[in-house]
Hints:
The protein is of the alpha/beta class. The protein is 34% helix and 16% strand.
Amino acid sequence: MKTILITGATGDVGTHLSRELAGKYKLRLSDQRPLKPPKGQSFVRADISKLADALRITKGVDAVVHLGGYSVEGPWPAILQANIIGCYNVFEAARRNGVKRILFPTSNHAAGFYRRDQTIDHRVYPKPDSRYGVSKVFGEALGSLYADKYGMQVFMIRIGNVNPKPIDKRRLSIWISPRDIAQLVSIGIDRPGIKFEIVYGISRNKRAWYDNSNAYRLGYQPQDDAEDFAKEILSREIPGDPTAELYQGGIFCAVEEVPNPAAPPKKTKAKGKKK
Ligand code: 15L
């Protein structure tokens, strides 16, 4: 039985995967937050922004599923620490420990600025919609480098949204059920001959914005379709921000006010003074 490290195991996706993959692999779960592992699985607490921790957890595993990191848009220092430094440490630690295979669940937000009326495949140039999206593009680029330069076997899953059910209109296009993501992850772990692949982590959704033929070529046979929930979801949907509605990344594409600490303080008008 293969030993698989799952980083970021306390998160939603990690929780679904450790349940779905139990018994199929020997799972070593890791996170910086504590976790009581399910029976038959082990847990190692680690902070992947420290290379020494990343080296410790990647020792002796057959593959790494690197979920650890900041999982939504956030302040740059947090993204930098977790998703740039942390991601680098995990790839580098895996290489130094001789781990050949690494799965990096990237995100739909690496390409979130494609419009919803476009269908994109695994070969499109990234169009990140956020600092978080940029960090996922960094992970994809790092994976490409480690595949070409060091011969690592790298499997990228641009995940839509993992949930037992799709939660809104946007997710009808990008939803993936827990059992479908587990199937994709198993392909990434077990399929021979992987060098560097990008697939989309979505179920067989009727409203998909992705041409996921690369996943199908590698043997993916999704069981679920978000359309089964469409009637219920559309009946309660209220129109959102028009920019967010235009792009695949949704609200991550909306312009936000980023406070600039270097900017001089704004002058306030003196009270009672007329122009
Ligand atoms: C993601 O990449 C996030 O990790 C997740 O929390 C959701 O925001 C998801 O994308 C989404 O777009 O629904």
